Sequence to fold (216 residues):
Amino acid sequence: MPGQASPVPVWSGLAVSESSNTMITLIYAHPYPKHSRTGKALLHAAHGLPGVHVRNLYDLYPDFHIDAKEEQAHLHKAHTIVLQHPLYWYHTPALLSLWFEKVLAYGWAYGHDSQGAITEALKGKRLLWAATAGGEEDAYQAAGYNHFPISQIATPIQQTALFCGMEWLPPHTVFGARKLDDAELLQAAEGYRDRLVAEIQHLTTQHPSAGASDAR
Ligand SMILES: Cc1cc2nc3c(=O)[nH]c(=O)nc-3n(C[C@H](O)[C@H](O)[C@H](O)COP(=O)(O)O)c2cc1C
Fold:
């Protein structure tokens, strides 16, 4: 209402002001957002959470010309980075793959700068991989048609995070993502939101100046 302070959102007992600093940078990569159902519902659940800043890669870079410096600046601000995407051929969509190449660059995410000093801009940050998968969970096991558990599918991303000195969090996966009915979709969206809220609560405890100290 005009002239009135906007209400402070309260998520699971956590009060954080809407103007709180970025705690989570959420990188969203869906090549066909208009056709997305599950990814869209999850993203919708994340939108508006205090301290969560969404970077929608296919909206930002339809020509695949990623602004690496801009992306690095957004990662720099966050304590936790979320990578949300549909699983495509057991990996990320192409733009997110390119994002890794361009953004996690030598002399920033790893390696040395021109003075010879070690560069590890992402060291200590937390990485949450959030993937939607068409396959059911029981397909992601040795006896299933996907043969490997999702934890093993995740290893290239996990090792990328570890190489950059990041903390790898237990992945958040929505299985059977093409066949969810409306109730299951709502449950999946709420589960994702709860996971992000738990992460915000964790960060608020670890880094009080990041968010909760702004709470009025
Ligand atoms: C090109 C392509 C590759 C895919 N590869 C996989 C895969 O490797 N594993 C899997 O479980 N699902 C796979 N899928 C299914 C998508 O992951 C699934 O449709 C998506 O997660 C559903 O979310 P959405 O409604 O946001 O699109 C693939 C889909 C497409 C179009």
